[in-house]
């Protein structure tokens, strides 16, 4: 990131940027501290083009494919519906100023307004979902980037580990360096770059490289598969595959390890008891917690030898020659044993039919990916840029009269107070995010509603311009895929639902 240019030098060739609280003085031919604005022959210019999405009338096109600038003939309407995103729109400061673009257009006979701004988010962060069974850290463990504390491990989800990164406490509540590194980490993750994170405290650290839409790399090893289910679910799903080919099956899992002969699935399929003894805490029949410590071994445990989770077989039930198949929740690890005369499992080569069942488990696993969801709260500057009465905007969003999108992408609005939204960065145009060195993240946000609803909430009516006027801007045009979210679709609004009923 650039150094903040101190607002001391008022030499005539410098101009002042008033797009954020930093208020840079920018010399001719130079960019401001955020690299978003520059002094071009005495004019303050936004360096990135304004991004518009064009609904081409259900023509099949690559997902959000960039259209070369040169192909653009300046006709923004061209018979197709155009949505002006906030990517490249710029920011306004202080709060009372209207948003940079407030555009109108008729959509299926309805006069619609879209208020477009790049919001400056101090209250923001990312939620990262990492599809893996491997242990990357305990809940609440700190997450570091470039040696700075940028977030923590949060509650695991089914087959995935979760991180919560950023937030106001790391952006502004710690040291200057912590804030700068947190902002840079969020920016890179949101712009789909790879970021190396270190999770946990000294002596118990895991290194994870995270990139939206890509497999995580955990301690140098790229993760391949997301488990098909927990050990118990795997027993339930594949129990029939094993009948007649082995006497018992253990599916090793850090969460719930499953045992076929004790599991309800085994009972219903008349699998006889085998005298097996699992170490760990028994939950319900055939389901065991805490068979080992979490780690990067079999099924997200710390073991590479599955026999470590088995105690002595019950001599009253077990017999020499009894067959045991052990497999992990992704099917990537498996082993086949037969009991010797002392009832001790001896490793044997895996019969082809059992190897096939491990392959079937692997086949049913989805590819492991990292998902990055930006989450932010629309504060004063954003809402005041839309209306002089900001709470009315919040109510309008809750009443489904105003639709919120981010770079044109679908956003999830949290219930309760404020406008706290979440969006998948992969649904957004590339390069959607920027930063200001306060530090805070810059993210696009658009509010779309009917003209008379906009008037009713105290909108900046005199600032409305026809969408055609945006053709005067430097534009980046993207084509809306028919399967993609269309922010202008009537179905988003309560009034369209009423008219149907
Ligand atoms: S940091 Fe960027 S937006 Fe803020 S004043 Fe400087 S150039 Fe303008």
Molecules bound to protein = iron/sulfur cluster
C-alpha termini separation: 53 Å
In round numbers, the mean pLDDT is 90
User: Within the largest sheet, what's the order of strands?
Assistant: 16-15-14-13-10-11-12-9-26-30-29
- Let me know the largest β-sheet: 11 strands, antiparallel
Tally of helical segments: 9
Query: What would you call the shape?
Result: elongated
Radius of gyration: 28 Å
Structural class: alpha+beta
Number of strands: 34
Low-confidence segments, given as residue ranges, are 58-78
Percent in helix: 10-25%
What's the structural domain tally? Answer: 3
Multimeric organization: single chain
Percent of sequence in beta strands: 25-35%
Short recap of the structure:
It is built from nine helices and 34 strands. It is α+β, with helices and mostly antiparallel strands. The structure holds iron/sulfur cluster.
């Amino acid at each position: 990131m650039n150094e903040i240019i101190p607002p001391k030098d008022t030499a005539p060739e410098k101009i002042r940027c008033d797009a954020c609280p930093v208020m840079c003085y920018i010399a001719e031919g130079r960019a401001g501290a955020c690299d978003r604005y520059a002094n071009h022959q005495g004019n303050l210019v936004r360096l990135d083009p304004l991004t518009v999405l064009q609904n081409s009338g259900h023509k099949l096109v690559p997902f959000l494919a960039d259209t070369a600038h040169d192909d653009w003939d300046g006709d923004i309407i061209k018979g197709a519906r155009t949505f002006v995103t906030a990517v490249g729109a710029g920011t306004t400061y202080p709060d009372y100023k209207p948003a940079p673009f407030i555009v109108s257009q008729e959509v299926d006979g309805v006069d619609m307004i879209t208020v477009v701004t790049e919001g400056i988010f101090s209250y923001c962060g990312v939620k990262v979902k990492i599809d893996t069974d491997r242990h990357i850290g305990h809940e609440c463990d700190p997450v570091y980037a470039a040696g700075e504390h940028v977030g923590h491990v949060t509650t695991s989800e089914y087959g995935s580990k979760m991180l919560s990164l950023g937030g106001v406490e790391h952006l502004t509540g710690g040291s200057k360096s912590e804030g700068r590194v947190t902002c840079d980490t969020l920016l890179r993750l949101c712009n789909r770059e790879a970021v190396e994170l270190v999770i946990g405290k000294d002596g118990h650290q895991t290194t994870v490289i995270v990139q939206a839409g890509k497999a995580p790399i955990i301690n140098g090893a790229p993760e391949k598969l997301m488990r098909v289910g927990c050990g118990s679910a795997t027993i339930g799903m594949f129990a029939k595959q094993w009948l007649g080919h082995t006497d018992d099956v253990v599916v090793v899992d850090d969460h719930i390890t499953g045992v076929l002969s004790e599991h309800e699935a085994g009972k219903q399929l008349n699998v006889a008891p085998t005298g097996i003894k699992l170490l760990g805490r028994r939950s319900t029949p055939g389901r065991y917690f805490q068979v080992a410590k979490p780690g990067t071994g079999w099924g997200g445990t710390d073991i590479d030898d599955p026999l470590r989770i088995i105690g002595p077989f019950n001599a009253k039930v077990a017999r020499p020659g009894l067959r045991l198949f052990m497999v992990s929740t992704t099917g990537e690890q498996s082993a086949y044993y037969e009991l010797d005369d002392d009832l001790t499992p001896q490793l044997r080569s895996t019969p082809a039919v059992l190897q096939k069942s491990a392959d079937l488990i692997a086949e049913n696993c989805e590819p492991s990916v990292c998902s990055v969801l930006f989450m932010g709260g629309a504060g004063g500057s954003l809402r005041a840029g839309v209306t002089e009465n900001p709470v009315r905007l919040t109510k309008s969003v809750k009443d489904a009269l105003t639709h919120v999108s981010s770079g044109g992408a679908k956003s999830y609005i949290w219930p309760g107070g404020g406008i706290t939204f979440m969006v998948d960065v992969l649904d957004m145009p590339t390069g959607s995010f920027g930063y200001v060195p306060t530090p805070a993240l810059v993210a696009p946000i658009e509010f779309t509603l009917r003209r008379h609803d906009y008037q009713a909430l105290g909108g900046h009516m005199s600032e409305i311009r026809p969408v055609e006027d945006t053709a005067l801007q430097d534009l980046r045009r993207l084509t809306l895929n028919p399967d993609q979210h269309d922010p202008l679709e009537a179905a988003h609004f309560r009034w369209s639902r009423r008219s149907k009923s």
